[in-house]
Structure formats: structure tokens, C-alpha cells
Amino acid sequence: MFKRKSISKNEQVGKSELTSEKAIDVNQQSPKELEIDQVIQNLEVSRNNDFSTYQIYADREEVSLEVIERILTLSEKNELQIRNAHISYVEKICNRLNASYPISFIYDIRSCNSDVLKFWEPQKQSFEERFESLKLVDSKGFRTIVFCSNPLDGDTFELVEILTPHSDFIIVEITKKLEEFLFESELIDSEKVKIAEEVLKIQSVNWLLNLGEKLKNNSSICWDPDTREFLESKIGQLN
To answer: Is the full-model pTM beyond 0.90?
Structure first.
């Protein structure tokens, strides 16, 4: 689905040094190596023939650089995704590895307003923290993917404008999760109900059409299929 950033010859040399190790003999592995392999198995999220995709979420930042390097030596076709990691963890990776490795940094950013994020996602990083991390990995040449799924306010265009210079792909999904939130039977937080209702009023059909019109030529945008189909039926071909 996503294209990788181009890699220079110098970067390819660095990569070959890491991936030229001999095939791993399980019978000769130390207890430490076996432990690392167990961690790697737990990080695998998909497999397709001779390559796998591994993902490290923010709550798995205890995963060592040693594990990351081992993943990248198992196969040149393996891909590692690091999602919503704190900037301190990202800095360690960027200091150890360069953009020749198949690593994608993924961020979930649903608003550019830290107060909004704090209200809905109190345990997660602020917008500023996520954005600084995104800018860092982009400056190092790594592939960057941002999910603006189910926006938490009406400022999605402003958010995308901020993210675009530092993002290879921005996934925009409008799937009415806030509307579903209002119908959860266990819901008892009246403040969140009120704010969700206000956001839904803002995110009207006209709001979506206006958003699509403003972003239709943005080559970084990937719309979810239902939203794309709706917009193209109303405003024509999207980029």
C-alpha cells in the first residue's frame, strides 16, 4: 500500500553490513538469543510468504535496540512499524539506525489541540510531543505515516496542513466513532456526551465536503474507502 522512501547507495552499504549475517542456527542460540526471539514472535502482526511485519506500540518501549536489530537481520524483506513511541525512544532508534532500514514510524493524531487530546486521550502524549517526534524521524529520512482517524474536532484541515510537510502518508478516516460513543450503554460521563454532540454538529456533511475539496489535491492523503467513494460522488476525483 505504501511506497518506501528512496535509499541512497551509501545507506544501502550500511544496511548490507547488518543483513549479511549468516543464517541463524537455533541449536547454537544462547538463552539471551532465545529470549530475544520470543519477544520478536510477540511483536509479529502479519506474515506474507517470506517476509513479516512487526509492530512496537508506545506501551512496548522496553523492547531493546538489540531486538530491533535482530528483526532487521532475520530477512531483508521484514518491516518494522513503531507506533506512537515517545520521542526519547525514537531518538535512541534514530541514533543507532539510519533510514536505509525498513522502519515506518506511525502516529495517531486526531487533533492539533493538546487540550482536546488530553480530554479524550488523557494517558497519551500531547500534540506537541507527537509532532516533535514526527519531525525528528522525518528529518532522518524514515517513512512516516499519520492516522487522523475519527477526528476529535472540526480542525482536521488545519491538522493536515501542519502534518503534510513531515508525513509521507496521512490516513483520513471519517467513520462516526463519536456517534457510536453516544450510544454506549455503560456511558455515564455527561460532559463527554455534551462535547461529542457538539463535535458531531460541526462534522456535518457540508464540513466533510469542504474538507474533501480543500484536500483533494494533497498527494499525501489516503482516504478510507467509504469516505473516498462519498466524496468522489459529490466533488469528483480525489488525488
So the answer is: no
